[in-house]
């Protein structure tokens, strides 16, 4: 019917049509029902641009491919290669020029991020070489990753960019710059989006004639809460299908009770920022608040041995730098600043345009807002870096400690939370913050960090005198080094799969039963970390019996503190909704069952054997 000579004589376009006709003839004879749909497609394929989006070009062959692989009206075509394309190896990169081009320009926020990427380039390169040696060139799949920075888009208002040069918060931009760099250095294929117009997610254009079931062109998507809302508007119902690929960069964290939309609505946990019904570990935080979320972090600049010796030689024992770039932070602080001034020369870095801000006392030497490298030099001379209680949990205290400063911060009585403090109201967490920087207090501590009651002048005075007597070496936790962040992000990318029906096994050693505590506190008190992936192993009657828990009734409920039991009522409860497994929940009425695990030295996000 179709001779070889006829095929060979055909021009390229004619050859394509001829081959399509051969395939169509063979396939339609094998699948008679297909001919009806093919006739329909012939008449309709130009009616909506979504068909062309899926590769329909007017040929019968493209109709059959569409009908079998997009609409599924026809069986799979035997001649189509249904296997997944081979994965590529993710080779470490030390050249950041391509990344810098991708970040773009035009906003001060992007300029700030690019300056940071350049400044840390050598440290990233050395860290990549060290981790490559540690992994012994183990195979790593290269992922196609979309990074959509929603809070910097014009569509979200981009309130951060205009404040970069006026003392505004930079923590989010620090973290995003480091995330982009880590993903690039690890060898993955990145697309960076800073606008909804650049947001290409495989959603067909047009009037909706095609189903929203097209393939997602990315293996992973990193975004934030603003980006999630934009993606929902852009993707519609297909967001639900693809949300297991999403990672949400979330500064303060989202607890399971706030993440589960129906539960949050019924029990008073609904806020403007939660309720996405993700696996709680898809939220990635700046500090390791709760293992319900994944700790993403950021990096601080590391010092070499020569720089450390130089710092020790040049420290000014009576020099303090205040953590507060905005004048409003200084209101009402003169009382304890006067005490500090008795012992130390006080320096500030408060932004101003023409006149010195009146909130800053006259005895303070104000340098104005400093570029990062000049701030580093100031911190390398200072003995003390002192916090005012706000901002909460920023990068600056870690940078000061890494430059040999002691960080002094206020203790909060009672702890700040969404119940008693405006800043946390509306955030999807019930976490109680006991100081300005809980990570520095709990994971670093004395002698690098001192947490005192600023309202007690005797306690404050005593702390200043102790600081002047104390010598410290520059210190940076491993998890905030470039190598630590690369190690952590590598482990997440290679091991976290929230699309799988069963999560990968994470070694956990035991379960604990403690009263009135969250599992975060219970495991931490024993030197371990709560492992939310292992609630499923203890959420059953057999586990309760193994712990010798005497229960008269075992109920399965939807409650974020379960599994747990009450000794008074001799009742046990099991968790019915896996999305509500929570390390963070606690209740005075129940003793919780807590799965705990070990962790790598200096890397709380990973167990000892999880690299």
Automatic annotation (TrEMBL):
GO cellular component, one term: Golgi membrane
A matching Pfam family: Glyco_transf_18
Catalytic activity, reaction form: N(4)-{beta-D-GlcNAc-(1->2)-[beta-D-GlcNAc-(1->4)]-alpha-D-Man-(1->3)-[beta-D-GlcNAc-(1->2)-alpha-D-Man-(1->6)]-beta-D-Man-(1->4)-beta-D-GlcNAc-(1->4)-beta-D-GlcNAc}-L-asparaginyl-[protein] + UDP-N-acetyl-alpha-D-glucosamine = N(4)-{beta-D-GlcNAc-(1->2)-[beta-D-GlcNAc-(1->4)]-alpha-D-Man-(1->3)-[beta-D-GlcNAc-(1->2)-[beta-D-GlcNAc-(1->6)]-alpha-D-Man-(1->6)]-beta-D-Man-(1->4)-beta-D-GlcNAc-(1->4)-beta-D-GlcNAc}-L-asparaginyl-[protein] + UDP + H(+)
Alphabetized UniProt keyword annotations: Glycoprotein, Glycosyltransferase, Golgi apparatus, Membrane, Signal-anchor, Transferase, Transmembrane, Transmembrane helix
Localization per record: Golgi apparatus membrane
Entry annotated with the keyword Glycoprotein: yes
Residue ranges constituting the Glycosyltransferase family 18 catalytic domain according to the UniProt record: 50-596
GO molecular function: alpha-1,6-mannosylglycoprotein 6-beta-N-acetylglucosaminyltransferase activity
Main location: Golgi
UniProt membrane topology term: Single-pass type II membrane protein
Enzyme Commission number, as recorded: 2.4.1.155
Presence of keyword Transferase: yes
Pathway annotation from the record: Protein modification; protein glycosylation
An annotated GO BP: protein N-linked glycosylation
PANTHER family xrefs: ALPHA-1,6-MANNOSYLGLYCOPROTEIN 6-BETA-N-ACETYLGLUCOSAMINYLTRANSFERASE B, ALPHA-MANNOSIDE BETA-1,6-N-ACETYLGLUCOSAMINYLTRANSFERASE
Family label: Belongs to the glycosyltransferase 18 family.
This protein's name: alpha-1,6-mannosyl-glycoprotein 6-beta-N-acetylglucosaminyltransferase
Organism of derivation: Gasterosteus aculeatus aculeatus
């Amino acid at each position: 019917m179709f001779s070889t000579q006829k095929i060979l004589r055909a021009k390229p376009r004619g050859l394509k049509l001829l081959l399509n006709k051969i395939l169509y003839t063979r396939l339609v004879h094998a699948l008679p029902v297909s001919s009806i749909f093919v006739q329909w497609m012939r008449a309709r394929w130009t009616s909506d641009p979504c068909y062309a989006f899926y590769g329909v070009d007017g040929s019968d062959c493209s109709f059959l491919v569409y009908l079998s692989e997009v609409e599924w009206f026809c069986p799979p075509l035997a001649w189509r290669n249904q296997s997944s394309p081979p994965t590529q190896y993710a080779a470490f990169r030390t050249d950041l020029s391509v990344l810098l081009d991708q970040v773009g320009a035009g906003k001060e926020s992007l300029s700030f991020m690019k300056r940071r990427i350049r400044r840390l380039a050598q440290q990233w390169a050395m860290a990549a070489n060290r981790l490559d040696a540690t992994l012994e060139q183990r195979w790593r799949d290269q992922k196609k990753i979309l990074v959509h920075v929603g809070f910097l888009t014009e569509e979200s208002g981009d309130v951060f960019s205009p404040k970069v040069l006026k003392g505004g918060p930079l923590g989010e931009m620090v973290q995003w710059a480091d995330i982009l760099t880590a993903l690039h250095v690890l060898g993955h294929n990145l697309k960076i989006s800073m606008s909804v117009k650049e947001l290409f997610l495989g959603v067909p254009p047009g009037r909706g004639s095609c189903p929203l079931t097209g393939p997602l062109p990315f293996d992973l998507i990193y975004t934030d809460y603003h980006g999630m809302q934009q993606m929902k508007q852009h993707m519609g119902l297909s967001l639900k299908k693809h949300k297991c690929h999403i990672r949400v960069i979330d500064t303060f964290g989202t607890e399971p009770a706030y993440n589960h939309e129906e539960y949050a609505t019924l029990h008073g946990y609904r806020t403007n920022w939660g309720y996405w019904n993700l696996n709680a570990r898809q939220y990635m935080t700046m500090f390791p608040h709760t293992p319900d979320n994944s700790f993403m972090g950021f990096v601080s600049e590391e010092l070499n041995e020569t720089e450390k010796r130089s710092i020790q030689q040049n420290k000014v024992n009576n020099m303090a730098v205040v953590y507060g770039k905005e004048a409003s932070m200084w209101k009402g602080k003169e009382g304890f600043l006067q005490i500090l001034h008795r012992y130390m020369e006080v320096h500030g870095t408060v932004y101003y345009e023409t006149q010195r801000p009146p909130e800053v006392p006259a005895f303070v030497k104000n340098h104005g807002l400093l570029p990062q490298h000049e701030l580093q030099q100031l911190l390398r001379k200072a003995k003390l870096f002192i916090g005012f209680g706000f901002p909460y949990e920023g990068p600056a205290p870690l940078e000061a400690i890494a430059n040999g400063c002691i960080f002094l911060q206020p203790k909060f009585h009672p702890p700040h939370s969404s119940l008693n403090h405006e800043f946390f109201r509306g955030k999807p967490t019930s976490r109680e913050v006991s100081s300005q920087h809980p990570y520095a207090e709990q994971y670093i501590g004395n002698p690098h960090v001192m947490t005192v009651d600023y309202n007690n002048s005797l306690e404050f005075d005593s702390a200043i005198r102790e600081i002047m007597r104390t010598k410290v070496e520059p210190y940076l936790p491993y998890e905030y080094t470039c190598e630590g962040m690369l190690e952590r992000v590598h482990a997440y990318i290679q091991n976290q799969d929230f699309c799988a029906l069963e999560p990968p096994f994470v070694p956990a050693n035991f379960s604990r039963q403690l009263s009135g505590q969250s599992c975060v506190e219970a495991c931490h008190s024993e030197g371990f970390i709560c492992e939310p992936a292992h609630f499923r192993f203890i959420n059953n009657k057999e586990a309760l019996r193994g712990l010798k828990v005497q229960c008269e009734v075992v109920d399965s409920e939807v409650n974020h503190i379960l599994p747990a039991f009450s000794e008074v009522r001799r009742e046990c409860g099991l968790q019915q909704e896996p999305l509500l497994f929570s390390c963070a929940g606690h209740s005075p009425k129940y003793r919780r069952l807590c799965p705990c695990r070990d962790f790598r030295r200096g890397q709380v996000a990973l167990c000892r054997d999880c690299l």
